[in-house]
Amino acid sequence: MSHNLRRGIALAVGLLCGMTSAPAHDGHANAHAPTLSGPECLRRAYPEFWAPDTEALVSRSGQRFEFDEHKDHLQRTDLLNQADLKSQMAQPYTPGFAGPPPGRDHDPGRLRAQPFFTALYGATPAEVQRHLVTVPWAPNGRTLPFTRLNGAAQALERVGRALAQEARTADYVRRPAGSVLWRRIAGTPRLSVHAFGAAVDFTLPHGLGRYWQWSGCTEAGACPYPTAVRQDPTLQRVVAAFEQEGFIWGGQWAHFDTVHFEYRPELVGPACTR
Ligand SMILES: [Zn+2]
């Protein structure tokens, strides 16, 4: 085992402590039981959004959200388009590369309750735009537009500073391939998280940029995971730096999108899992 791999695993284990239970798709020991409920994880992850002093999921503007909208009966492909907060939180996100690739349909964070995200970041391009700021991106000395809400822009800036400290990790994220873009996910009615200014893609080197749709996979079918992606020690450190700051990585999905990093602190925050 290389030093880098060992360091990455140590980091992953550290992140797991007090944060998540054993994921359903691999054989990790369940050393760290979940300590917070899904609603509590949402409340802690987005403190600017929720009204204070209430246990209910009510926004500061008075919009009330049900955690469970009783959608368990829906087929997964239908649930993707109509996810509620419960299904959004239902699959545990496992940071790091220590475990095997995600099992079939294990896409933690890919189910998103769209009304929650439009309330959080904006329901129109103009509303989203109001919250965008210019983030210094240390790996290339340029800037990226990103939402400032819920600490997202500051978190992204910290990731960039951390990755810039090492030439190899800086090189992996020197070429952003889009952060803010008002668009729907190809072939679906769902808005991309890029529409909200809360996700960023990079052109990764060495053929590491892989997307399930480019591999000829379908939403409903099994998709062979590009395992070489998880054997790259530099990418491992890149992913760890993002995860440490509240971002999830699209490479943790069975429907993999390895160039994609998305600000989802409710999934990687302390003590949060389902
Ligand atoms: Zn993306």
Low-confidence stretches: 1-33
Helix fraction by DSSP (H/I, runs of at least 4)? 25-40%
**Domains, number:** 1
Small molecules held by this entry: zinc ion
Name the overall outline.
Answer: globular
Overall average pLDDT: 86
The portion of residues forming beta strands comes to: 5-15%
How is the biggest beta sheet arranged?
3 strands, antiparallel
Cα gyration radius (Å)? 18 Å
The tally of strands reads 5
**Order of the strands making up the biggest sheet:** 3-5-4
What is the N-to-C succession of helices and strands?
HHHHHHEEHHEHEEH
Rounded to the nearest angstrom, the distance between the terminal CA atoms is 31 Å
What structural class results from the helix and strand content?
alpha+beta
Instruction: Supply the number of helical segments.
Output: 10
